[in-house]
Amino acid sequence: MLHPRRWLTAGAIAFALSNAAQAAWPERPITLLVPAAPGGTTDISARLIADKLSARLGQQVIVENRAGAAGIIGAQALARAKPDGYTLLMGNIGPNAINYALYKTLPYKPSDFAPVTLVISVPNVLVVNEASPARTVADLRAEARRDPSKVSFGSSGAGQSPHLSAELFKQRAGISGTHVPYKGAGPAVAALLGQQFTFMIDNLPSSMPYIQSGKLRALAVTSDKRLAELPDVPTMAEAGVKDMVVTAWFGLVAPAGTPKDVIDKLYAATRDVVQSPGIRDRFKAMGGQAGGNTPAEFSVFIDQERGRWKQIVDAAGLAREQ
To answer: Which CDD domains does this chain map to (predicted)?
Structure first.
C-alpha cells in the first residue's frame, strides 16, 4: 500500500498535469463547424477569421461545413462534441435563436452551448434577379398581388433569418408567396441568379457581390438607416414597409463545459482578430459590423434574441414539428 503522502503526491502531480494541459491549449488543430453550405455569411465570416485565428493561436483552424436542417445538423454536432476547445461552431441567429421558437423539438438546448463572442452582425437585403420587372418594393408588391400563385421566395433554409425575414415581409407588405428553402445562402443565391424564384431576403454579404455587379437588384435593406455601401437602396421603412428592422448575427460558440481559461483565450484571440483593421474593414465592405463582445455579454445577447424571435414566431403562427 502506498504511503498517504505518496497518494497526495500522485494526486498533486495529476492536478498539475491537468492544469498544464489546459494551459497549453491549443496543442493540435481546431475544427470550426459551419452549419451551412459554402457561400453564405456564416461560411464567409468563418473563413475570413480562420487564418487570422490560426496565426494568433499557433494552431490551424479548419473550417468544416455541416449544412442542412436549418443549422440543426451543425449545432447538434457541436452539442455532442467533447468540451475541450478543439471543436467550435460559427453559431448564428438561426440555430442559436430562431430555431428554439420555430421547432417544437430540437436535438439540443441552449445550455448545451458556451457563447464565446459575436463575430459579425449584418442587415438583410431584399433582392430580385436583374431580369425582374420589379424595380422597387412597390413594384414587387403590385406584382405579387396581381398573381399570388406565381410568387415564390428563396432562403438559406427554413428557420434562418432570411426565411423569417421574408415571412415578416409578407405580413408587413400584405402579400403571399411560396417558400423555397435551400441548404445555405450560396445555393439560394445561385438559384435566384437562375431565376428559380421571385425574390429573396438574404444576409447582405452573400448577395453584395451580385448587387455590385448588377446581376441582382437590391430593393430595400432591413437596417434602420441606409448603408454607406448601398446609398441608393432605401430602408424597408422608406420603401413603405413599417416595423421591418432585422439584424442577422454570427458568432463563435463552444460546447458547454469547455474550461473557462480556454474560452477566455479563444475570446481574446477572436476579439483581436475581428477588431483588427483588416477584418473590420472587410466586414464593413460586406455591409457588416465587427463584434468582439465578452462571453458574458454574448450570452445575454443570445438570450434576448431567443425571446425576441419567440414573440415573432408565435405571433406569425410559424411553429412546427422538426
So the answer is: PBP2_Bug_TTT
